[in-house]
Amino acid sequence: MRRQFARRAESLANRAPGRAPGESRRVLRDAPCPGPEKLGRIRGVNMPSSPSLADAVDAALPQTQCRRCGYDGCRPYAEAIAGGVAINRCPPGGDDLIAKLSVLTGQPAGALDRTRGEPGRLTIARIDETLCIGCTLCIDACPVDAIVGAAKRMHTVLPALCTGCELCLPPCPVDCIAMVPAGRAWSPEDARAARSRYVARNRRLARVHASAAARATSSAADSERVKREAAVAAALVRARARRSAWNADRK
Q1: How many independent structural domains does the chain possess?
Q2: 235-248 per-position pLDDT tens digit
């Protein structure tokens, strides 16, 4: 009796749901394992997607946001490179960057396009505070929020945050900004921090612009409402005048 019970238990243990009684667990062990994408769907977990080419290129760029490449920052240039634009348009990155991008994109590692500027040591902006008039134009131009100050107050550059992009030079009306040697090299940590500040600044500006657009829309709606209310009031005045005239004629 006990031997029959043991054989019955072993038979049930070896049987899988939906399979014939004669099939053993060995068949299940030999079955191919589903891939990670299928496992993710089964378990309700979204598997992380691999970085795009634009992401990989953006990670390799120096993140100085200098726009010498002809694009409005490193990320737009990375997206353009992913679309086939030349990889030799970044003076801050120089030949080392071209070699990295050649491996990533498969493009030939040509010479740096010198019409975009010359590579060199890192320089940072310095404001002559005796000449600064507090116009805030350099603050608006800085892509990484490395300049602090207020309207009609002295401005100053935070050396640890400056990328040396030189975008603050053209808008200065009194020419009180100069580029001076940084005394250090631009590091990957600098690039990551600059990217974070660049992204944060763009998000802040987007919120400001959206708020301004909402206020403008609200103002326009208020103006239209005032116009409608004025038109209705004028129509009531005319209607009352006609009614008064009609009553006078009846008398």
Answers
A1: 2
A2: 778 878 777 777 77
